[in-house]
Specification:
The protein is α+β, with helices and mostly antiparallel strands and 450 residues long. 59% of the residues lie in helices and 12% in strands. A four-stranded antiparallel β-sheet has the order 1-4-5-6, with no helix packed on it. Strands 2-3 form a two-stranded antiparallel ribbon. Strand 2 and strand 3 form a beta hairpin. It is elongated, with a radius of gyration of 41 Å. The chain starts with a helix and ends in a 15-residue tail after the last helix.
Length: 450
């Protein structure tokens, strides 16, 4: 009867401890993700450019070579690879926590029990070997294996593993973010460099025309067909163009060094093709359906994996309130003399302990960890929503930018054609006037003083 009462008591205590550990705070219901528009600015095109490899967007071999160098040497890219290694190591750590930990070792000690103690009195009347009593100073040699294992009954360790795996995938998408931004920035800077080359060529051609015009106006002044004010106006325009030439040269240097920085090298000239802008234009970008396009963006994928990781962190933090079951044990050889150490089975020693622990006093600390995990989950949810909205707005803005650039390009082309036509008429009139001067006066002819 007494044994039955003891068993019932132990069972009730275990149930009480279990219920105490299972009382946790409730999960916070996350707000719903806002629905995404079905199209970009009423665009019905379903072709998705996000599925196209970046090499297919560029036809300039020099630009492709620069990007290849940057993908190998850029310091930000190299740093992201190390972040991936860190995440991979953390994932291995979480996987290893699910398995028993086994270690080997040995120890050497010597004990002496007081004579007027239970151990001392018992040892004085005990033979350690036939005919030999236990000595007062008793050596102890041990060599064997020890193991500890936390049984993941509630899935706490598995949740930590899921969080580590999600962050590992997120680190890979973080690398893709860096690669995407790197390719984009190199391409933008490269085409800006080409535009600066074209601008510099136009300025230098303008300078040449202005020098010719200044010479002609000087001749007109000598022939009393123009005054000093006109000469000074043409000279001021020439000086302004030369100042623009110096400014463009500085901008070219800055753009070249920006590319060199992205390539992870010190300043040096950038190899590029000349007059490529009007001939080789990247293919038209197709945005497609927002959900199909945005799900390929690495920043959105990274935010999604971080959200998955924080959800797993919340589950793991909640399971910390539950009882934990640990198994510890050891097995090896133990003897008072090395000559008896490996005698089997007399020298074999082992221990096996199973323990059930429930957090009681430190529940406030665990609850604080749980609330922290919940706050991080909500933060990740907001960041995920913000990343989606930002990605949609970026694509929307760039679509309108492409349309407006196309319109501006067409208007600028018409303007350039008209300006060139007017310039040709002016140059023709000046040349016609020059041909009518007495003696065929040219830039080097000096008119006699009047």
């Amino acid at each position: 009867m007494k044994e039955s009462i003891d068993k019932i008591t132990c069972g009730l205590v275990a149930v009480c401890l279990f219920m105490a550990g299972c009382q946790t705070t409730k999960n916070i219901e996350s707000s719903a993700i806002k629905p995404m528009p079905e199209s970009f600015a009423n665009t019905k095109d379903s072709t998705n450019s996000a599925m196209i490899d970046w090499r297919q967007f560029f036809s300039d071999s020099a630009l492709i070579d620069l990007i290849d160098i940057a993908l190998k040497n850029n310091l930000d890219v190299l740093m992201t690879f190390q972040k991936i290694e860190i995440a991979r190591a953390d994932l291995k750590l979480r996987k290893g926590a699910l398995l028993p930990e086994i270690s080997g070792g040995g120890s050497v000690s010597q004990r002496r029990f007081g004579r007027y103690t239970m151990d001392g009195a018992g040892n004085r009347a005990t033979e350690i070997t036939p005919g030999r009593m236990v000595p007062d100073d008793l050596p102890d040699y041990y060599i064997g294996l020890q193991t500890t294992w936390e049984m993941d009954i509630w899935g706490k360790l598995r949740s930590k593993k899921k969080a580590a795996f999600a962050r590992y995938l997120g680190s890979i998408e973080g690398k893709n973010i860096v690669l995407t931004n790197l390719i984009s920035e190199i391409a933008i800077t490269y085409y800006e460099l080409l535009s600066l080359d074209t601008e510099l060529e136009i300025i230098r051609e303008t300078i040449k025309l202005q020098e010719d015009a200044l010479s002609m106006v000087t001749i007109q002044k000598q022939a009393a067909a123009a005054n000093e004010l006109v000469v000074q106006q043409f000279d001021a325009q020439l000086l302004n163009s030369r100042a623009l030439e110096v400014e463009v040269l500085q901008r070219i240097t800055v753009s070249e060094n920006r590319i060199n920085y992205l390539l992870g090298r010190f300043p040096q000239p950038i190899t590029r093709k000349k007059s490529i802008l009007p001939k080789e234009i990247p293919a038209q970008v197709k945005v497609g359906i927002p959900s199909d396009l945005l799900k390929n963006r690495p920043d959105i994928k990274h935010a999604e994996f971080e959200l998955m990781a924080t959800k797993a962190d919340v589950v793991s933090a909640k399971k910390a309130f539950y009882p934990s079951f640990n198994i510890t044990g050891a097995m090896g050889f133990q003897a008072f003399n090395t000559s008896y150490l490996f005698r089997s089975p007399e020298s074999i020693a082992y221990t096996a302990i199973g323990s059930l622990t429930v957090p009681l006093i430190n529940r406030s600390a665990i609850q604080a960890q749980f609330k922290t995990a919940q706050a991080k989950q909500l933060e990740a949810l907001c960041n995920y929503q913000k990343t989606i909205i930002n990605g949609y707005i970026e694509v929307y803005n760039e679509m309108n930018n492409i349309k407006n650039l196309e319109r501006a390009y067409n208007l600028t082309t018409k303007k350039s054609d008209r300006v060139n036509s007017v310039n040709r008429d002016i140059i023709g009139a000046i040349q016609n006037w020059q041909g009518k001067l007495p003696g065929g006066i040219d830039n080097t002819t000096k008119c006699p003083p009047i």
